[in-house]
Design brief:
With 385 residues, the chain is α/β, with parallel strands linked by helices. The protein has two domains: 124 residues, Aspartate Aminotransferase, domain 1 (Alpha-Beta Complex); 243 residues, Aspartate Aminotransferase, domain 2 (3-Layer(aba) Sandwich). The protein has 13 helices and 13 strands. Strands 2-10-9-8-5-3-4 form a seven-stranded mixed beta sheet, sandwiched between helices. A two-stranded parallel sheet has the order 1-12. Helix 11 packs across helix 12. It is globular.
């Protein structure tokens, strides 16, 4: 196994496999002139399509996951469009901000950050807002570790002719994504989460319905870099790229996809089993999980023990034991920690090391725990040691 000295156990960016780093370092091709690059790009996109569960073309964009999110909103939303924005976390609310920035009317439906959106919630929202033409939802809200059931929500939207835009940045590669079966119109991911490639790329697939909406815009798109129609006019129709592609980043992502697909779809079951064992360990040691249900398999969020200061503890954990864990965002900052057992970190030895470091750090703060041994015992019971 590949065990670097420092363990980046945050919910993305994650640590990266040495094979991924090597692929990035060794990439020396000129993507503008090398005749092999379009085929390499297409192969990488096909690997992503398999992971995302779609037969639709996948675009790889030169920018962190936020680029794909904004590009999808910018390309699909026109002034006056009524967009239902399901928000039970900060990224759900962020999508509503994008909608408003591009002239759409964001109809924000909020729910407690510890609870998922269910089909009945969406039914009620649509009854109150019958003129909605698009909807946005976050599959995994990274700051909370909550997983929204898009497999229930998106078919409901599709049956009403409403386009769905799903932020799956923190779930793709770790939780099942069946974009076509779930009738998702736009699904987006990022390189630095459960695929464990370096940050810097976003990728997305669009359904024929979504492309049709872009093609029939009433108001021409005024931008360039965020214009997905540009990709249709160049890459999808003619096999050329609208601008120079980041070949080393794509080489790293391609290798990361290949590693994920070596054991696919069992890799998804592995994420689920390890995540459940981490949650059991936390509960057995008296910690309170943050979500009430619908836990993501890519990370675990839990409340920080009383009398322990967030930054002080995390700095101590890193400086003394060389393990990083994540805090949270917005109103949860300083009250929730997150363990990123996704992608490269979804391996028993790395998780055990992270939990053992937590045990030692907690002991330094006079809070005895046995997270690592509880985790190991749970895996042993499941025959997964």
């Amino acid at each position: 196994m590949d065990y670097p000295e420092d363990l980046i156990f945050t919910p993305g960016p994650t640590g990266t496999d040495s094979r991924v780093r090597q692929a990035m370092a060794e990439c020396q091709i000129n993507p503008d002139s090398d005749p092999s690059f379009p085929g390499f790009y297409r192969e990488t996109a096909s690997s992503l399509a398999r992971i995302m569960g779609t037969s639709n073309p996948v675009l790889i964009l030169a920018g962190e996951g936020m680029l794909g999110l904004e590009a999808s909103i910018a390309s699909l939303v026109e002034p006056g469009d009524n967009v239902l924005c399901l928000a039970n976390g900060p990224f759900g609310k962020g999508l509503a901000d994008f909608v408003q920035n591009y002239g759409g009317k964001a109809i924000v439906v909020e729910k407690d950050w510890q609870q998922p959106f269910l089909a009945e919630d969406v039914e009620n929202a649509l009854q109150e807002n019958p003129r909605v033409s698009l909807a946005t939802i976050v599959h995994c809200e990274t700051p909370t570790g909550l997983l929204n059931p898009i497999e229930e929500i998106c078919p409901l939207l599709a049956n009403r002719g409403i386009l769905s835009i799903v932020d799956a940045v923190a779930s793709i590669g770790g939780d099942p994504i069946a974009a076509d079966l779930s009738q998702v119109d736009v699904v987006l991911g990022g390189s630095q989460k459960a695929l464990s490639a370096p940050p810097g790329l976003s990728f997305l697939s669009l359904s024929p319905r979504a492309w049709n909406k872009i093609e029939k815009r009433k108001e021409p798109f005024r931008g360039f870099y965020l214009n997905l129609k540009l990709w249709q006019d160049t890459w999808l129709n003619h096999g050329t790229f609208p601008y120079t592609q980041p070949a080393p980043d794509i080489a790293a992502l391609s290798r990361a996809c290949a590693i994920a697909l070596e054991n696919w779809p069992q890799a998804l079951e592995n994420h689920s089993i390890l995540a459940a064992a981490v949650r059991t360990s936390l509960l057995e040691n008296g910690f309170q999980l943050y979500p009430l249900s619908h836990f993501a398999s890519t990370l675990s969020a839990f409340l920080i023990p009383e009398k322990i200061k967030d930054i002080t503890f995390r700095n101590h954990l890193w400086e003394k034991y060389r393990v990083q864990i994540g805090g949270s965002l917005g109103p949860l900052e300083g009250s929730v920690w997150r363990l990123g057992h996704m992608g490269f970190n979804a391996e028993p030895g790395r998780i055990f090391r992270a939990l053992n470091a937590l045990d030692r750090a907690f002991a330094d703060f006079n809070l005895p725990t046995s997270l690592a041994s509880s985790f190991a015992a749970e895996l042993s019971q499941k025959g997964k040691t």
